Amino acid sequence: MRLAIFFTSIALLTSCGGAAPPVEEPVPTPVAEPAATPSGPPVAEVRPVTNTYHGVDVVDPYQWLEDPSDPEVRAWSDAQNAWARQYLDALPGRETIGARVRAILTSAVRSHRDVTPAGGRFFALEHRPPREQPFIVVLSSLDDPDSARVLVDPTAIDESGAVAIDWLVPSPDGTTLAVSLSRGGSERGDVHV
């Protein structure tokens, strides 16, 4: 009913030469843009390669970019990084946000993930900044994180930090643990028991 009265009022005002009530448009909030870059990002050259999978031809125009050891690929990647850095470094508030993110990531807050109960205990990956790599612990109680005992520490295996834990699976009775360890960011883990 109110809608009908509203539209009738507008129709009467308009037919009598009156103006419709002004509609307030929201004013867009200006967004600070970083300084314009002199040119766009580096363009990857199209070099089509055709591969046949199960009788189907698949054309990949950028397959040449898959070899990170190729000097051309490294040069293109470096140019992409330089262009992105130029843009990102010009963003307003970047330093403040960066400082806050660093503070959060390096805060001495212990956290656990992949918590798995087995044999009356709890197995988990523990992350404890400023350490970069999580490590495997066993806890007697989830209410007592100080009861954690370290089982596998990748930095004890390789001090350079090149070893990472992909996953862990304890046996149902908690006496055996399978762990996948990857080296150098490969994510191709070797299973250790």
Report on this structure.
With 193 residues, this protein is of the alpha+beta class. Among the domains are: 49-90, no CATH class; 107-192. Helix content is 25%, strand content 27%. The protein contains 4 helices and 9 strands, in the order αββααββββαβββ. It has a 4-stranded antiparallel beta sheet with strand order 3-4-5-6, with no helix packed on it. Strands 7-8-9 form a 3-stranded antiparallel beta sheet. A hairpin with a 2-residue loop joins strand 1 and strand 2. The protein is flat. The model is unreliable at 1-23 and 25-37 (pLDDT under 50).
Please state the structural category: alpha+beta
Largest sheet data:
4 strands, antiparallel
Mean pLDDT: 82
Helical region count? Answer: 4
In angstroms, what separates the terminal alpha carbons?
74 Å
Helix share bin: 25-40%
Looking across the biggest beta sheet, what order are the strands in?
Answer: 3-4-5-6
Radius of gyration: 30 Å
Ranges where pLDDT stays below 50 over 5 or more residues in a row are 1-23, 25-37
Shape: flat
Topology:
Blueprint (H helix, E strand, L loop, with lengths): L1 H14 L33 E5 L2 E5 L10 H19 L4 H12 L5 E8 L2 E7 L7 E5 L9 E4 L1 H4 L5 E8 L6 E7 L6 E3 L1
Brief descriptors of the model:
27% strand, flat, 193 residues, alpha+beta, disordered N terminus, four-stranded antiparallel beta sheet, three-stranded antiparallel beta sheet
Question: In short, what is this structure?
Answer:
This protein is α+β, with helices and mostly antiparallel strands and 193 residues long.
